[in-house]
Design a protein that fits this description.
The chain is α/β, with parallel strands linked by helices. Helices cover 26% and strands 25% of the residues. It folds into two domains: 160 residues, Quinone Oxidoreductase, Chain A, domain 1; 148 residues, 3-Layer(aba) Sandwich (Rossmann fold), CATH 3.40.50.720. The structure holds NADP nicotinamide-adenine-dinucleotide phosphate (NAP).
Length: 340
């Protein structure tokens, strides 16, 4: 079986772009006992990939991508073409971690990406397959786990969500509103802000490119924040530390503002001590115990149309680097995906 795969040809110093990648055609081995052959149909584009497009990924995180090799550990959905593993049959829709390529041979018994990428049959009877790379997969799990680790699955609090037009943030903002929180949301375009305010129904939203977060929070949440869901880090986290009320909680989901440049703060970390704050870093993939509960509740809201799933779809494998570049620059909305 011939397979086309995206490979990194060089590590970017600043912004990543198509020049850092190439395509390679390779021959895949036939599946052995315990393996399945999958034709990939959707593959994920995530900010975290940029952290691995370095000579050394952050300690404790997924490994850096080697040059001139396929990108292992990228969540993907596909159709089983041939199975030599119990529990999997030709025609099944599955997820697995060998994305940014057209086909993959997957070991059905291996644990991949803390279990979040292990081969799994997906129920597509009433659910579009692409949702499993978004709200019903690792993205939904990350949104749910982040609210869980800061004890915010209840409701009735003042919550700020950053990067709220993106994959994780747009789910967190919608779920937080449904749970009964008073939500402030921020994003980087007028269109994203209008969607959050007019369709999601957050209490307030702002464009951080138009107004610095510290100034916007002082204007929109003068009484302070109970919870901050941080997708951005840097100046956003610094503004949150200023705005947190005593005993507030911050879910440290990611710091995308740092992924392509030198980290920039926060400079006011002592406020976490002064105000008895909890800063909770977490990985969605380490909360698989929450997956069933998340899929049941979020899946119900999605099917009822109470939660909207927005996605930005790029057509064809060769577009994956462009999709990544666009997503990091804020040019995509909701979950960024490539359809193969
Ligand atoms: N902890 C986990 O397990 C886990 C899992 C998945 C993702 N994450 C993290 O969650 C965050 C969001 O991921 P996602 O997949 O949902 O991506 P996303 O929000 O769909 O895409 C990233 C968005 O971040 C915004 N952004 C980029 N640079 C920025 C900057 N300097 N300041 C403010 N905003 C900036 C851009 O939107 P706008 O500028 O238009 O707002 C961009 O589109 C990332 O930090 C990611 O690493 C964590």
């Amino acid at each position: 079986m011939r397979c086309t795969e995206v490979r990194m040809s060089s590590y970017p110093d600043g912004d990543v772009g198509p020049a850092h990648f190439g395509l390679a055609d390779v021959e895949l081995p036939a599946p052995r006992p315990g393996e399945v052959l999958v034709r990939n149909t959707w593959t994920s584009v995530d900010p975290g990939l940029r952290l691995r497009m370095r000579r050394h990924a952050p300690a404790g995180y997924f490994a850096a991508f080697p040059l001139d090799a396929p990108l292992d550990g990228v969540l993907t959905v596909g159709e089983v073409l041939e199975s030599r593993a119990d529990g999997f049959a030709a025609g099944d829709t599955v997820w697995h971690p060998f994305g940014w390529r057209t086909h993959a041979v997957v070991d059905a018994s291996a644990t991949y990406m803390n279990g979040a990428g292990s081969l799994r049959v997906l129920d597509t009877a009433s659910t579009p397959a692409s949702w499993y790379l978004g709200p019903l997969g690792a993205i939904g799990l990350t949104a749910w786990a982040g609210l869980h680790v800061v004890g915010a699955l209840g409701g009735g609090e003042r919550v700020w969500v950053s990067a709220a037009g993106g994959a994780v943030g747009s789910l967190v903002a919608q779920v937080a509103v449904l749970l009964g929180h008073r939500v402030v949301a921020s994003a980087g375009s007028a269109e994203k802000v209008a969607w959050l305010r007019d369709e999601v129904g957050v209490e307030a939203a702002f464009d951080y490119r138009e107004e610095p977060p510290a100034q916007a929070l002082a204007r929109l949440a003068p009484e302070g924040l109970d919870v901050y869901f941080d997708n951005v880090g840097g100046d956003h986290l610094e503004a949150a530390l200023d705005a947190m009320r005593p005993h507030g909680r911050i879910a440290l989901c990611g710091s995308v503002s740092d992924y392509e440049s030198e980290p920039r703060g926060p400079r006011n970390l002592f406020l976490a001590t002064a105000k008895h704050l909890t800063l909770a870093g977490f990985r969605g993939s380490l909360h698989l115990d929450l997956l069933d509960d998340m899929q049941r509740r979020l899946g119900g809201w999605l099917r009822d149309g109470v939660v909207a799933h927005r996605q930005s779809v790029y057509e064809g494998l060769s577009q994956a680097p462009v999709a990544l570049q666009d997503m990091l620059a804020g040019r995509t909305t909701g979950k960024t995906l490539v359809r193969l």
